[in-house]
Amino acid sequence: MKVLVATEKPFAKIAVDGIRKEIEGAGYELALLEKYTDKAQLLEAVKDANAIIIRSDIIDAEVFDAAKELKIVVRAGAGYDNVDLQAATAHGVCVMNTPGQNSNAVAELVFGLLVYAVRHFYNGTAGTELMGKKLGIHAYGNVGRNVARVAKGFGMEVYAYDAFCPKEEIEKDGVKAVDSAKKLYKDCDIVSLHIPATAETKNSINYELLKDMPKGGILVNTARKEVINESELLKLMHEREDLKYITDIMPAANEKFVDFAGRYFSTPKKMGAQTAEANINAGIAAAKQIVGFLKEGCEKFRVNK
Ligand code: NAD
């Protein structure tokens, strides 16, 4: 069995060593395709792979067509919108993610971004504090839960809305469960976005939802840029000079947002999961899931039907 690690943006060496230990320890062969610059290299490398570990690499129908021996793809990370799930299912390939492995890293970045924002991007003027402010967590999944944990340390009042997570599960963490996204945005000084990018959520963070944010409201996005309706957010930021947008995923229309000096910040490149710990955790989890799947047929964390 051949397991390919195909990473345009490679894992840290220590993560690759950990992956190698899991894969070779199970008696499989490990192949590496790192820093590839051309899709043709990926298409060539997948030809005889039985399993693939990826990061943000695009695995589309063409890749599945080329990978005749493929049984499983594991996205080392949470979001898997870079994999064509329909094509995977049509080719009989199992797709998994590694939920939870980078959640703390993302949650810590949320607060790095927030402190930077409320202290006026460290421009030397007096800012505000997070303590006592109302934080709304939009989607109470792995990242959202970690954000709640850290927010309590800052002394924030924590609220959350999740379309699928039961209220009791939110409230057992000492977080106030809110009935609708609308109410969350209306009631909270700061909203931190943690919804996945799905057909339903794309463009869903729109004018209608954001317009009721309290004066001085901050939207922090470490989820996906696709969930934001950028043109409507731009319109609102022109109308409301008190709102701030802070993001880890540069908007497609970044050049229009940079005009909002002091109210807009984007990391130059997605940084949320970029920690040594998250890198290692997600890579090794992916390797373990592949071994579990190939040896025992374990499909925990499968994301396609
Ligand atoms: P998760 O799957 O653990 O949680 C997602 C949550 O969203 C679930 O609780 C689900 O019930 C909820 N949800 C789904 N659709 C919803 C809707 N329409 N309305 C309200 N809630 C909804 O995912 P996660 O690990 O917490 O990741 C959350 C997001 O963060 C994803 O978009 C992921 O791609 C992104 N992410 C970004 C980085 C980064 O580097 N910035 C790293 C990891 C994850």
Structure description:
The relative contact order is 0.15. The strands form two sheets. A seven-stranded parallel sheet has the order 8-7-6-9-10-11-12, with helices on both faces. Strands 2-1-3-4-5 form a five-stranded parallel sheet, sandwiched between helices. With 305 residues, it is α/β, with parallel strands linked by helices. Strand 3 (51-54), helix 3 (61-66) and strand 4 (72-75) form a beta-alpha-beta unit. It has twelve helices and twelve strands. Helix 1 (13-25) runs parallel beside helix 12 (276-296). It has helices spanning 13-25, 39-45, 61-66, 85-90, 103-118, 142-153, 167-171, 181-187, 207-210, 230-239, 254-257, 276-296; strands at residues 2-7, 29-34, 51-54, 72-75, 94-97, 134-138, 157-161, 176-177, 190-193, 218-221, 244-247, 264-266. The mean pLDDT is 97. Helices cover 36% and strands 17% of the residues. The protein folds into two domains: 2-101 and 274-296, NAD(P)-binding Rossmann-like Domain (Rossmann fold), CATH 3.40.50.720; 106-266, 3-Layer(aba) Sandwich (Rossmann fold), CATH 3.40.50. The structure holds nicotinamide-adenine-dinucleotide. Nicotinamide-adenine-dinucleotide is lined by residues 77-79, 99, 102-103, 106, 139-144, 162-165, 194-197, 200-201, 222-224, 248, 270, 272-273.
